[in-house]
Amino acid sequence: MKNRLKVLRAERDWTQADLAERLDVSRQTINAIEKGKFDPSLPLAFKASRLFGLTIEEIFQDE
Amino acid sequence: MEGFIDMGDSQELSRRQRNQLNHRRLAGYTLVWLVSLALVYFGHRYLWDGAALLTSAMVGINIIAGIAMMMANKKLLAGLDELEQKVQLEAMALALGAGLVGGFAYSALSQTGILPFHAEISHLAVFIALTYLVAMVKGVKKYQ
C-alpha cells in the first residue's frame, strides 16, 4: 500500500519521531509504514487521518 | 492476579515510559521466578533437608511467581504498538514451533538412547530462547 505520510510529515516539518509520538507508535513503525513495508491497522489509519485532517484515501492508496 | 501484581492503568505515561515500566516489571517478576525456582532445588537440598511440605510450598510460590511473570509479559505485549506486536507474534510463533518440533525430536533421540548424554529440559529452554532471539532480530531487520 502506498501512502503520503512522508510528504505530509515534511510539509509540517515533523521528524519520524514527532509523528510517532503524535500517533503513539514507535519511530520504527512510522519508518516501516512510509517505506511500504508495513500496512497500518484501520484504527491507526483513522488516527493519522484525524491528525492530518484528511480522509484515509487521501493518505493511503491501494496499489 | 491483576491486583496482586499491581498492574494499574498507565495511560497517562508516554509510550516510552509505559514500555520502560512494563519492561522493568517483567524483569522484576522474572528475577523473582528464577530465584524462587533456584530456592526449590537449593532449599530442598541444603535448607530444609528434603522436607516435602516445604518443598511443595516453595513450588507453589514458584508457580505464583511464574503466573505473575506471565501476566507482566502479557501487559508488556499489550503496551507495544501494532508493528512491534507483529514482530513479537512472528518470533513467538517460530519459537513455539521450533520448541515443539525440536523438543519431541530431542526427546525421541534421548528415549531411543541415541544421544550420548542425558537430555535436560534446560537444553530445550535455551533452544527456545535462542530461536526467539534470532527470530526477533530477523523480524526487526525485516521491517527496517
UniProtKB/TrEMBL annotation, chain A:
UniProt entry tagged with the keyword DNA-binding: yes
UniProt-listed InterPro entries: Cro/C1-type_HTH (IPR001387), Lambda_DNA-bd_dom_sf (IPR010982)
HTH cro/C1-type domain residues: 5-59
Record protein name field: Helix-turn-helix transcriptional regulator
Coiled-coil annotated residue ranges, if any: none
Organism: Alteromonas oceani
Keyword Phosphoprotein: no
Pfam families, alphabetized: HTH_3
Keywords: DNA-binding
